[in-house]
Specification:
Blueprint: E1 2-9, H1 13-24, E2 29-33, E3 46-47, H2 50-58, H3 62-68, E4 70-71, E5 76-79, E6 82-85, E7 92-93, H4 96-104, E8 112-115, E9 118-122, E10 128-132, E11 137-145, H5 152-156, E12 160-178, E13 189-192, E14 202-208, E15 211-218, H6 225-232, H7 234-241, H8 246-249, E16 252-269, E17 276-278, H9 293-313, H10 320-327, H11 330-351, H12 355-384, H13 386-390
Parallel strand pairs: 1-2, 1-11, 2-8, 5-13, 11-17
Antiparallel strand pairs: 3-7, 4-7, 5-6, 9-10, 10-11, 12-15, 12-16, 13-14, 14-15
Helix pairs in contact: 1-4, 1-9, 2-9, 6-7, 9-10, 9-11, 11-12
Length: about 400
């Protein structure tokens, strides 16, 4: 029997972040995961936006993560083969396994890591008994369930998954390689769909190291023959769906494995129980199209580890009323609601044929075009001044 205050079940992004935060705070914790080193997995490949980077910073892990990631600096925005804007960017490309393993490297040695899988939990208002696949038994005051999409353990606790939107979106990941030139002309680019009928919200191109990574998002059923065609002939299928993309990229081909991952939107019922708390995708999923998955994980874990666990450990017991405070946290609830609304709105604005959503698409196009024009006008004096002609920018 191993005794601890906190047992963290699952060592993905949420679980590893929780282990690092609790260990740094001096909280006794054990992390349980089947993998000593997190394996390659097609999930998050990019962090981005001021709000998301701020949420990462609140975990205390921002510096370590961003040192490993690739900052693109500028992200081109385009549609219909037209470059709309070149705004400064806070996008950082990093493969999911590198992200998780970077965070795991920040977990202090005081946090024990057990290579195994939790197969059962017996809960109470005092201590939780967790049995692992390797025969170990952990007694913890609180079990943090951060095992993502694995529902088996939650089912043993009477927690049921409710599908809100089956196959809400599908993500496709691959490397894009320039043909006839050493590199692409852009640092990064987000290219929005040309036709709602193609059921594509956008493709995002961004660097990870020296690679140009592509994440293409699609609203189709996973058994749609379109996916088989994409695997067979990715360049031709992509060009058919986004025919004017090459005006900006030039000729391209793909490299490496093409990864395809469908995403269901689901919530759980029956999760308000003594002794356990769900975080990240174990609590509820979001749509990868919106890029809010990391926002939810960092918000969940930061609020739990910085606000609630220290207060819970200061008093006896770990009853349901205590745990409920985390789920009712206004910061967490606001992030969950925002992420959920964005998932549904993004799908509608991308593929809905109604007059309102068509108007929304044109409004967004006009907004980006206007921003780009204002940016070019603001930059024009600097580009045409004698000083700029005789003293090039160091990056030129």
């Amino acid at each position: 029997m191993k005794y601890t205050d906190i047992a963290i079940i699952g060592g993905g992004l949420a679980g590893s972040t929780a282990a690092a935060m609790l260990g740094r705070a001096g909280v006794a914790a054990i992390l349980v995961d089947p993998h000593a080193v997190y394996p390659p997995d097609f999930r998050i490949e990019k962090l981005g936006g001021a709000e998301q980077i701020t949420r990462l910073a609140k975990t205390g892990l921002g510096d370590a993560v961003l040192r490993r990631a690739t900052h693109d600096g500028v992200n081109w925005i385009a549609r219909y083969g037209i470059l709309l804007d070149k705004p400064p960017s806070l996008q950082f490309g990093i493969m999911y396994d590198d992200l998780v393993n970077t965070i795991r490297a920040e977990v202090p040695g005081s946090v024990q890591t057990i290579i195994g899988k939790a197969v059962s939990i017996v809960t109470s208002a005092d201590r939780q008994r967790i049995t692992l696949s390797n025969g170990d038994i952990i007694s913890a005051r609180l079990a943090v369930i951060a095992n993502g999409l694995n529902v088996g353990l939650r089912h043993t606790l009477g927690i049921e998954r409710k599908i809100v939107s089956a196959c809400h979106s599908v993500s496709i990941g691959f490397d894009l390689v320039a043909v006839g030139r050493p590199v692409f002309p852009f640092p990064a680019m987000t290219y929005f769909s040309e036709r709602p009928s193609d059921r594509i919200p956008y493709i995002t191109l961004f660097p990870i190291g020296k690679r140009m990574r592509a994440n293409l998002f699609v609203y189709r059923a996973i058994d749609d023959p379109w996916f088989r065609e994409f695997r067979r002939a990715p360049v031709e299928t992509l060009e058919a769906a986004l025919p004017r993309l090459k005006r900006l990229t030039g000729a391209f081909t793909t490299s490496g494995e093409i990864k395809i991952r469908p995403a269901d939107l689901y919530v759980n019922t029956g999760y308000r129980q003594s002794g356990i708390v769900l975080v990240g995708d174990a609590f509820r999923t979001t749509c990868p199209v919106t890029g809010t998955g990391c926002d939810k994980v960092f918000t969940d874990v930061q609020r739990l580890c910085s606000v609630y666990i220290p207060a819970w450990l200061a008093t006896e017991g770990m009853g349901e009323a205590k745990i409920a405070a985390f789920y009712d946290d206004p910061v967490k609830r606001a992030c969950d609601s925002w992420s959920d609304a964005k998932a549904h709105d993004f799908r509608k604005v991308s593929i809905d044929s109604g007059l309102y959503w068509r108007a929304q698409r044109w409004a967004r196009f006009g907004n980006w075009l206007g921003r780009g024009l204002l940016r070019r006008l603001a930059d024009a004096p600097f580009q045409t001044s004698p000083q700029s002609r005789h003293h090039p920018h160091p990056a030129e």
